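Structure tokens
________________
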Amino acid sequence: MAAPLVHQVNVKATPDQIYEAVSTVKGLAAFWTSQSQAEPRVGSIATFGFGGPSQRMRVDELKPAKRVKWTALADFPNWDGTTVTWDISPAENGETGVLFRHADWPASVSQDDLGSINYTWALIVERLKQYAESGKPNPSSPWRHARAFARAVIFPAECWRRSQTRTWASSSRSRSMSLGRSTRGRSSPESWSVAPTRCRRTGPPYRACLTTTS
């Protein structure tokens, strides 16, 4: 197994507030992706959408104000069977400690890919802290979030460099765009669709080409 991805942060909020944030659809949609579907019930399947691609998580453990544990299903490459835990505990100065861990990665996953995924998780944990402390929802919309998650999660880094175009079409014209360019105001996340692109390194199709029409 590859080493787990771990983040720890102290939050100026109660354990109950943190637990609600990481176990309910209201909380998860407030700091992660706005396309979150979840319920606090062991055995249920939570789904997190990213403007086309999505990842399902089975809820394995729920300990109010203490712990939430998920197991990833076979959606994103290499995620099947990996586990995500949110451990909640009292910290100093009346704060609450949150220990995030994404573990049980197959040994075949490269350090570059794990590093990219871990960076993305760091951004998500920071959004959890901001939401729990302010009470103001600030999710990553699928439109803004998809590029980062595509690069870090949906396919390996080598495939990313070979899969870097997206097509945007309007009623008056169409053009190809680099994934790195701004698309603000041109279409909504709901209009995205995802087409598979064959990864030259590993063979199977990966969801690499994001296509949107308006």
Remarks:
- Helices lie at 15-23, 25-31, 111-134, 142-154, 157-162.
- The first strand starts at residue 5 and ends at 11.
- The two ends are 44 Å apart (CA to CA).
